[in-house]
Amino acid sequence: MDTTQNSNASTTQRARTRKLTFYHPNANGNGTAVEIEVAPATPDRDGQVFVSIAPQNPNPENVVVTASGKQCSAFFWKNRLCVKLSFQEVAEMLMVLSGKSKALLHGSKEGLFHASSEANTTVSFKQSEDSNHAGSIFFGVSRSLKSNPDSRQNLCFNFSPAEAFGLRMALEQSMAILAFGIFSPFTAKKGLKPQEESIAPADPF
Known about the structure:
Shape: globular
Helix content: 10-25%
Distance between the termini: 51 Å
Oligomer: single chain
């Protein structure tokens, strides 16, 4: 399994898509935000989805202004937890979003488990058990350092029914580029000009 990491970890530059972000601030200052980014497959790398979750800045004076001029609560993105998901794991998330599964499962246990040389991480993604919030999806990330098991960090986010529906549509559309990458008929193969790309001849009559 791939590891969950914080924002201080160095990352290799990759071609990625535009980020999809959900914000859930609250008056208590303990809200969270989720950011989703897709890295399409390439000839030498499988496609991946990066999901980051960050805590709200509890100081009400710390706000950000959107392009439309709206003021929003700020979030500690430097303290975010980032999960790297494979094609298979995204497919399992879609099973939950479409109602075919109640939760992500790892064998008989609920959740996904990622491990690295530095940390252990559990990812929860499940349908709400509250009948008053039918259609909502709970997403949670729990991470602890192997050098300090007591240093556990827990962040969670509840997607509303509308957000869960939109996320399902977005992820479904991303599956093709996760599997095959971004197709461009004008991209030449290595060592060939565009007009020299191999084209299968038409079958003779």
